Amino acid sequence: MAYSVELDSVACIGCVACTSCEYFEMRQDMKAHAVQSVVVEIGCIREVAENCPVSAITFCPNVS
């Protein structure tokens, strides 16, 4: 199953916790962004979403 991944860059505080997962990286403005918007494996995404201090990361089944 594929999942859509979103990261709210306005809510992001730049704590870099999500960068432990290969699907996220920091930009020069010190805001994280998702490298891919649709993924098949959500293991590390679920973990960093649960640990994001501002709940900026969301994922849901991709219906398209």
Using the alpha-carbon principal axes, give the shape: globular
Q: Give the number of domains.
A: 1
Q: Helical content, roughly? A: 10-25%
Please state the structural category: alpha+beta
Q: How does the major sheet shape up?
A: 3 strands, antiparallel
Q: State the order of secondary-structure elements, H for helix, E for strand.
A: EEEEHE
CATH architecture name: 2-Layer Sandwich
Low-confidence stretches: none
Radius of gyration: 11 Å
> End-to-end distance, in Å?
11 Å
Q: Care to count the β-strands?
A: 5
Briefly summarize what is shown.
The chain is of the alpha+beta class and 64 residues long. The chain contains one helix and five strands.
Descriptive overview:
The protein has 64 residues and is α+β, with helices and mostly antiparallel strands. It has a single domain, classed as Alpha-Beta Plaits (2-Layer Sandwich), CATH 3.30.70.20. Helix content is 14%, strand content 28%. The chain has one helix at residues 43-51; strands at residues 3-7, 24-26, 32-34, 38-39, 57-61. The strands form two sheets. The protein has a three-stranded antiparallel beta sheet with strand order 4-1-5, with helices on one face. A two-stranded antiparallel sheet has the order 2-3. Strand 2 and strand 3 (32-34) form a beta hairpin. The N and C termini lie close together (11 Å). The mean pLDDT is 94.
